[in-house]
Amino acid sequence: MITVDHPRYKWVALSNTTLGNLLATINSSIVLISLPAIFKGIHVDPLDAGNVSYLLWMLMGYMLVTAVLVVTLGRLGDMYGRVKIYNAGFAIFTITSIILSLDPFDGGGGALWLIGWRVLQAVGGAMLMANSAAIITDAFSAEQRGMALGVNIVSALAGSFIGLVLGGVLAEWDWRSIFWVNIPLGVLGTVWAYRSLHDTGVRRPAKIDWWGNATFAVGLTAVLAAITYGIQPYGGHTMGWSNPWVLTGLIGGALVLVAFGVIETRVAEPMFPLGLFKNIGFTSGNAANLLASIARGGLQFMLIIWLQGIWLPLHGYDYESTPLWAGIYLVPMTIGFLAAGPLAGYLSDKFGPRLFASGGLLVMAVSFVGLLLLPGDFNYAVFATLIFINGLGGGLFAAPNTSLIMSSVPANMRGAASGMRATFQNAGQVLSIGVFFSLMVAGLADSLPGTLSTGLTSQGVPVDTANTIAQLPPVGTLFAAFLGFNPIGELLGPAVLGALPAANAANLTGLQFFPRLIAEPFHDGLVIVFWMAIAMAVAGALLSLLRSRKVAPAAEFVAHEAEVKAELSDAQPLSPATGVSEPLDRA
Length: 587
Description:
Elements: H1 9-41, H2 52-80, H3 82-100, H4 107-139, H5 142-173, H6 177-180, H7 182-196, E1 202-203, H8 210-229, H9 244-264, H10 280-314, H11 322-329, H12 331-351, H13 354-373, H14 380-406, H15 414-457, H16 463-470, H17 474-482, H18 488-499, H19 502-509, H20 513-544, H21 553-570, E2 572-573
Antiparallel strand pairs: 1-2
Helix pairs in contact: 1-2, 1-4, 1-5, 1-7, 2-3, 2-4, 2-8, 2-15, 3-4, 3-7, 4-5, 4-15, 5-11, 5-12, 5-14, 8-9, 8-15, 10-11, 10-14, 10-15, 10-17, 10-20, 12-14, 13-14, 13-20, 15-16, 15-20, 18-19
């Protein structure tokens, strides 16, 4: 067994936490691209309006739970030991993966089984994500921290894209295999973590902030759930922003979060140390992280819809095989992440993280401009180049941004800071569902009805039937494209199709008609989406350049020494090797 004093311990810590982060984030996206196979496997009709909520909760349930819990679990890591919480997370994650693969039900029951156990799996994933960066920060010196965080954080970001590829491949075989793949790696990681990792940070006994935890969980869940449900049609409107329940969630959730902020300023040991936001580096780094996460999450959804619903069918791929090929065609983005991430971490140790974090987001913005200019039926070589550049930009940003955030906080607050960073990142993923789907639906609402009506009547569909279909909420068409599903046959029904000439009926239900029909309206929505992504990337780049107000070096040193003494007087070192954490990095 390698002790904390051993020169190789830090590499053991990095390897295990990278595996944990990778598994946790792969599972945030592996279901995303496997939904067609899952819905087919449990016999759920994706076009049934009553099943839209199943789709949304399968998409957002995991991400929502991780967004809500990572701060609490990071804080618990500060209090009871980061490794202890991390190890428990590995075990929970592995056990729930086994249970998910054993779903015994069909239809709505099968969907609820998956949603419920995915929520519990997310608790384990949140334990891993909340404490991995803090464990690495404790194990590595300031000179190597950027490189180590680069490997770890880029593995997490790349995991979300690896999940797309892996989900596409495994879903082609058996939808349950997307959970089977976690089991051997989860068992290995759990045993390895329990045998090899040691708490080397400073543990600070404290009381659990129950009111803070409760108001944060309720408020954030209400807001994020309301934003997600806002994309569903309501009362004759294309979206549900006038739905009383959505408004209640938005307004009520915001008020509860205000109450949370008040509580956190009045308790002795807050779960969310608001004082950290007095540091400009911490605040701007997290704001940039949130904006980048929204833009990145929105890009994932848009590219999957573009490939599965339009480009792949236009190029002769059957709808059943589009998840597999969509994952394969997105590989260049993952390669970009993997190529740039560790390198950016290493270089940021030498030259400082700010320019890399800012430059990475500007590179992402340039790639969004390129994607904006592509036609619906694009040249793949150009598309692959642009998503590779996008991956490079994300990789350049990830590690330096994390280094900026983690190096701006005291050593005994690194668990909470790691959880807060993960909260902004995961909340951005959930927000991207509501923000980008809403923007896309708004873009589709203008041009899709006319396009649908004209396209259907040109094939002999009666005008009344065509107009009825054209007036259906655009979100249904959007979800059909997202799931790689041709809805025309089901919308028209056998009676209408049977009355049409055979050639027209075959054309309507073939591979080409539906994607050609929605390509132009989809591109209208895509223009709005990508302009928003460009604005977010540029804003994040500017935020990454902000610096804290400098103080005199001597005063800074004295202040830091006082902080360290205060930490040591209150803390319980977990190891003889704990010592004093190195001075805060001057990023």
